[in-house]
Amino acid sequence: MDERGRMRTDGRAADEVRPVKITRGFTKYAEGSVLVEAGETRILVNCSVQNGVPRWLRGSGKGWLTAEYSMLPRSTQDRNIREVHFGKPSGRTQEIQRLVGRCLRSVVELDKLGENTLWLDCDVLQADGGTRTASITGAFVAVVDALYHQVKKEQLRYIPLNNSVAAVSCGIVSGVPLLDLAYDEDSRAQVDLNVVGTGDGHLVEIQGGAEGDPFSWEQLDALTTLAKKGIHDMTEVQRAALGPLWDEVRAGVARLGEESPFGALKNLKKDLGR
């Protein structure tokens, strides 16, 4: 409900995320493939494992993870021209795919991959706000499936993740802080924030700003409080989607702690939100 007493368009409470569903194994060929549904937003996220790394990593024994992002021409109310016609991705597209790559690299132990690359392809089928955050949340599940595929092929001994990662949007609409903005809200927001965090409550990245007048530190605190709840909710969705495989992720976290020369992960008391 906003300051004028109006309810959110879809009837949600201010601190409530949209209904979220992650369907695994959505396409046939990718090592990891999920369909993410967040309200009316639909995103296909595929994770492919390819031999080889960028030139600057060759000979290092380390792997890499990178991401691409695109929107289908009619994922929005009006048809968009495919970016291939312009010869390069837009600035927005480049920003989002770099964000997705950074966030997933924060939880993947690249030195355990060998010289292999994880390619994330995030394709927006239908956009109704929060496409970058939904891409990150779904990408984590796709990465887990891809890494587990490598474990089953005996290319990896365990899933080399040090945490989970999820993301959510929030903003101030008509003076009221709201969690998980749909497009109708995002287009009217005075402040827009995207927050990425781990399953154990740490931050990975915060993006945001005012669309007009500056906002206060107190408003920022209110937004990050909403985001913390939203990331917890998204982590629970990931946990439910992965089912028993979530335990394999936790086992990988524990295994990394045992192998860490500094024991930095051994004392992780709240791994993956436990």
Protein architecture, described:
By secondary structure, this protein is an alpha+beta fold. The protein has one domain (20-80, 94-273): 2-Layer Sandwich (Ribosomal Protein S5, domain 2), CATH 3.30.230.70. It has five helices and nine strands. It has helices spanning 91-105, 131-152, 183-186, 217-242, 245-259, and strands at residues 20-24, 32-38, 41-51, 64-71, 116-126, 165-173, 176-179, 191-198, 203-210. The strands form two sheets. It has a five-stranded mixed sheet. The chain has a four-stranded antiparallel sheet with strand order 7-6-8-9, sandwiched between helices. α1 crosses α2 and α2 (131-152) runs parallel beside α4. The protein is globular and about 55 Å long. The model is unreliable at 262-271 (pLDDT under 50).
Q: What is the strand arrangement across the widest sheet?
A: 1-2-3-5-4
Overall body shape? globular
Indicate the low-confidence ranges by residue numbers.
262-271
Number of domains: 1
Main CATH class = Alpha Beta
Helix content: 25-40%
How many helices? The count is: 5
Strand content: 25-35%
Structural class: alpha+beta
Largest sheet, in brief, is: 5 strands, mixed
List how many beta strands DSSP finds.
9
CATH fold category name: Ribosomal Protein S5, domain 2
Give the CATH superfamily.
GHMP Kinase, N-terminal domain
Radius of gyration over C-alpha positions, nearest whole angstrom: 19 Å
Gap from first CA to last CA: 32 Å
Looking at the overall shape, the CATH architecture is 2-Layer Sandwich
Compressed to H and E, one letter per element, the order equals EEEEHEHEEHEEHH
What is the average of the pLDDT values?
Answer: 90
